[in-house]
Amino acid sequence: MKAFASWSGGKDCMLALYRFLKDSENTVECLVNMCDTDAVHSRSHGIDKNWIRKQAKQMEIEVIQPVSDFAGYEKVFKHQISILKERNVEAGIFGDIYLKEHKVWIERVCSEMQIQALFPLWGENTEDLLKEFIGEGFKTILVAIRNDVLDNSWLGQVIDTRFLADIKKLDGVDPCAENGEYHSFVFDGPLFSTALDFTTGATITSGNHNFLHLKQND
């Protein structure tokens, strides 16, 4: 099956992609990373879109970065799917785990575009998913937090077994942050040829979110 991967740069879309590619008959045509109208940042995680391109390069997968505001998101997303259908793409891969409303939206959009929506992680225990992600050798860093849920000490943390133990101690916080408690950026793992090299910079606050700036090492 030939598919595109809906891409944020974080752990869930990475694990979904990884599982999909374990079937040797599957191929990924490209990553689709929706970007803000400022043309600089990925919509979901606030990451500079150049870092998404670096991920794609390490995986040797093409990345497409359509630009959209919130109101025009569905129209732009559908337009991109229509282009990919001309390249014989049959399905989209999504990293959703249990948010039913978002899954329903994806399924409707994909149905209207006559492609299959795939959810490799759907309905699974989020602690188990995080253990799998860590165990497979992926490396990821927290690049955004909801500051009404987590304090700034969580920004920049690497997701590992210690992180999992600590996050489990917090009431009302999902280990995989399915409710948006945090967002992550994958910088190494079994799909990468080499790890991405970076340093962390300033913290930027926007509403109830804090974002960590990543800088390329010289």
TrEMBL record:
Domain of life: Bacteria
An example Gene Ontology biological process: protein histidyl modification to diphthamide
Coiled-coil portions: none
Keyword Ligase among UniProt keywords: yes
GO molecular function: diphthine-ammonia ligase activity
Repeat recorded as keyword: no
Keywords carried by this UniProt record: Ligase
InterPro entries listed in its UniProt record: Diphthami_syn_dom, DPH6/MJ0570, Rossmann-like_a/b/a_fold
Enzyme Commission number(s): 6.3.1.14
Pfam families associated with the record: Diphthami_syn_2 (PF01902)
Domain Diphthamide synthase positions: 1-216
Membrane-spanning residues: none
PANTHER family with a match to the protein in the record: DIPHTHINE--AMMONIA LIGASE (PTHR12196:SF2), DOMAIN OF UNKNOWN FUNCTION 71 DUF71 -CONTAINING PROTEIN (PTHR12196)
Name listed for the protein in its UniProt record: Diphthine--ammonia ligase
